[in-house]
């Protein structure tokens, strides 16, 4: 039975017979009832039957803490090769059946064949930017709502001057009359070109792709026609398959950045939902995200290290025939955290900052420079404090935010 | 400030100043930072600024039980008129910021104008079926995976003979070579026609609409061309906006039934996610669901009464200029529960059964008849036990499953 998808669940129950429960899931979510099937049909139904792989029971005296990690194999033949079908099969009804969390999915190579993953991936994006041996640096618009095109252009210009590789829209900047996507792509990429002429530095701008589901592809093409060289997308509010539809469209020839908006409704509970690693790591990469944003383990809005490392592994894992996704730990990032980020994530990471760029006393350009200097220092094996002695932007940043190294 | 969407959150924190926290959400999720805005810009930015409506603190000595219900008004001008934009605005980033659950959303009439809601609604569906003064009765295919067209047709025929008004696919029946949607619609509706010729009874068959997001409309049209008179849709695995795109498409001229698959990843935790009433009630109706399925408060997979009543109210509420959605409490329903269902939901409800139809000793036809008899009994004010004395199908059902009245 190689062509199956194995789902790992954590089931909580004070009293249940977990082996029996696992069996009832394996049968109930596939053929319905095995005993009701006539003997003459059993041979042909066997290939549709779910199978319990294993059950690991964690006994505990703490109330509500008795649980089991259960793995169940679902035959591929039961579902079509798309993420909605996979999720509905393994967790559609089951999600509503008591305290149960979906921890992991391990699909078959046959299922995998329907997905080509990220179109560019880490290597392709490094190629586009001409940056190979260091983390990438991204900054986010500070404030976007209510600003007009010239204000956005100016913000973009200041950020670009700091030496960042990527600039992204805020995820709450939707299609609006003041800064429609085609117009803001135009003015921002003019600013990018202007800076590139001065510095020789290339830059990707991820414009937020929003609006009605069935118009997303047209909207993406319009943005690309206007010059967009990357897109930001709130995947979870549209479903993974919308991302897959975008990433697998040959006309949508730019990297896609997946924003984790709404993810906190799904991953943080120990008892319900979907693990962060699966939700934001494995499934976003499968659906074709070139960049995967998630809360960093350091900042204001934090995610536990175990989860952020799980996402990182899912983004970089080489077991699957897919390009790698760039992990982008986000929120509360300042230059003093760069040593930790590189320690925890290596150089295949995007250092992503908002307040840590815009809150710099020398402005957004100075903020970007401070990050560039922090990255240089770490890669040279120098402490930030030492490096800051001859680097003004970093010096200011450390004075405000401190360092952790 | 009438054109706002008011979001209600439950925030948990042992120590936080909830008023301060509310203020930081209202500002942070709209203009970003008020103090950073130059004085000259403040007048023009005022219309984008979020506002704290009220904060109700629940003090408690129980650890982890100190919480506040906070209402925040978000100006409509900040987001486009679609559900992904609304959700990302009010809960995108915030969902990841500690223990916080989204309890409710109250959008403006301006926002509402972008939505026409269910295309048929309760009245339209009653009109189609010619059934006006009783609950509708639906049965679900017992087992679908691995069965061929003739087996499905036979199952359908048996269910139809029992006198049900609606038959729905199982939500895990995806596009597959054995029973592709166009073919199964054809054979099932032939069976429906055959029964109608005998009994005069009309029937809707909700075929499961699955596959790639960007092909859903074409797939729906193909099913309708083949004769489909209703569609089932796993909304949460595709996003609300896909449902809205389907329900607002003039060519998709059949009622849509929203299945709650995956909903349990979102509603059951007290600390995270989205309330069942909002998730499955208000938002599904806004997006255009003619039928809303959810776990019943009675059966095997249960939802608390408070939640099921919240969903019911959201489906039936007459404050909004939208047709009503049929509430469909599901799972574990047998004829003996019909008195409770009608007591709790009134007659504007669909009595929906799987095992309670197929597990009947007289077969699926007998199972349907038992439900029809149970409904008749309740509407006549007779106890099921009395009614069963002269009604064999109901008598058998009560012997197996008992009654609750």
From TrEMBL, chains A, B:
Enzyme Commission number(s) of this protein: 5.3.2.5
InterPro entries, A to Z: Diketo-Methiopentyl-P_enolase, RuBisCO, RuBisCO_lsu_C, RuBisCO_lsu_C_sf, RuBisCO_lsu_fd_N, RuBisCO_lsu_N_sf
Gene3D superfamilies assigned: Ribulose bisphosphate carboxylase, large subunit, C-terminal domain, RuBisCO large subunit, N-terminal domain
Keyword Amino-acid biosynthesis on entry: yes
A single BP term in Gene Ontology: carbon fixation
Keywords: Amino-acid biosynthesis, Isomerase, Magnesium, Metal-binding, Methionine biosynthesis
Start and end residues of each Ribulose bisphosphate carboxylase large subunit C-terminal domain: 121-401
Keyword Amino-acid biosynthesis: yes
GO molecular function: 2,3-diketo-5-methylthiopentyl-1-phosphate enolase activity; magnesium ion binding; ribulose-bisphosphate carboxylase activity
Domain called Ribulose bisphosphate carboxylase large subunit ferrodoxin-like N-terminal: residue spans: 5-102
Top-level lineage group: Bacteria
Alphabetical list of NCBIfam families matching this protein: PRK09549.1, salvage_mtnW
Family, as annotated: Belongs to the RuBisCO large chain family.
Protein name, per record: 2,3-diketo-5-methylthiopentyl-1-phosphate enolase
Organism field: Paenibacillus agilis
